[in-house]
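Quick one, C-alpha cells below. Sequence please?
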C-alpha cells in the first residue's frame, strides 16, 4: 500500500516527527504534536526514489493528460524536477512573489496558454499557499488538472479551500496513516493517536495537550 510505504519512509528519516508530549510551536503560534520537513527526503536517496516514483505514478494514473509539471516554491521545485525527469515532461515552478528584476516572472519555465498542468507540492495543511499557485497558473491561461503532493494533514480548512477552488489533490500519504504507522512502529503510544486526530480536527483547540 503506497500510503503506508511512504509514511514509513517519512518516519524513518524523521521528515515527519511526532512529539505529543512536547508540542512544537508553529509560526502562527499554534501548538502542534507534529513536525514535518519533507526537504529531508532529498538527502535520503532511497526514500527520495520512493517518493519521486510514487509522484510519477500518481501523475500517470490520476492526470494522464498532463503536459507540464509546476512545483511550488521552494519545497516543490526539486520534486517537480525529478518527477518531470522520470516522466519525460517539462517542468517549471511558481514563485511566492514576482521577481523585482529582469522579466519580473512569477512563473518560471515555459508555459503556454491552454497547457494542462499538474502542481507538485510537498505538504498541504490549510491549503492557502498551494491554492495561490493554482490561481496564478489559471490566470496565466493554464488548465490545472490538479495537485500531486507528498503529505496532507487533511485539516478541515484545507479540504474546504481545495473544494472551493475546485481543485483535486492526490497525496502519497496523509496524517491519519502516518499516525497509525507511528503507533505500530513504536514512535508514539497507541493512545496518542486520538490526541493527534483531535489536533488535526481543530488545531486551535489545545485540549489534546497533556491528556
Amino acid at each position: 500500500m503506497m500510503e503506508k510505504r511512504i509514511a514509513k519512509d517519512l518516519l524513518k528519516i524523521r521528515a515527519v516527527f511526532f512529539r505529543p508530549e512536547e508540542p512544537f510551536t508553529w509560526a502562527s503560534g499554534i501548538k502542534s504534536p507534529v513536525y514535518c520537513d519533507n526537504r529531508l527526503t532529498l538527502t535520503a536517496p532511497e526514500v527520495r526514489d520512493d517518493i519521486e516514483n510514487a509522484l510519477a505514478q500518481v501523475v500517470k494514473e490520476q492526470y494522464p493528460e498532463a503536459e507540464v509539471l509546476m512545483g511550488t516554491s521552494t519545497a516543490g521545485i526539486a520534486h517537480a524536477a525529478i518527477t518531470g525527469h522520470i516522466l519525460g515532461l517539462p517542468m517549471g515552478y511558481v514563485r511566492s512573489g514576482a521577481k523585482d528584476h529582469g522579466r519580473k516572472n512569477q512563473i518560471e519555465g515555459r508555459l503556454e496558454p491552454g497547457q494542462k498542468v499538474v502542481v507538485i507540492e510537498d505538504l498541504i495543511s490549510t491549503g492557502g499557499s498551494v491554492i495561490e499557485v493554482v490561481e496564478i497558473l489559471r490566470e496565466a491561461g493554464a488548465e490545472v488538472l490538479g495537485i500531486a503532493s507528498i503529505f496532507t494533514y487533511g485539516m478541515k480548512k484545507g479540504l474546504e479551500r481545495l473544494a472551493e477552488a475546485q481543485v483535486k489533490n492526490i497525496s502519497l500519504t496523509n496524517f491519519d496513516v502516518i499516525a497509525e504507522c507511528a503507533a505500530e512502529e513504536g514512535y508514539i503510544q497507541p493512545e496518542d493517536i486520538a490526541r493527534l486526530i483531535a489536533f488535526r480536527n481543530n488545531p486551535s483547540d489545545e485540549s489534546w495537550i497533556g491528556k
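The two ends are 32 Å apart (CA to CA). Strands lie at 16-18, 24-25, 31-32, 34-36, 68-72, 91-94, 107-108, 116-124, 143-152, 169-174.
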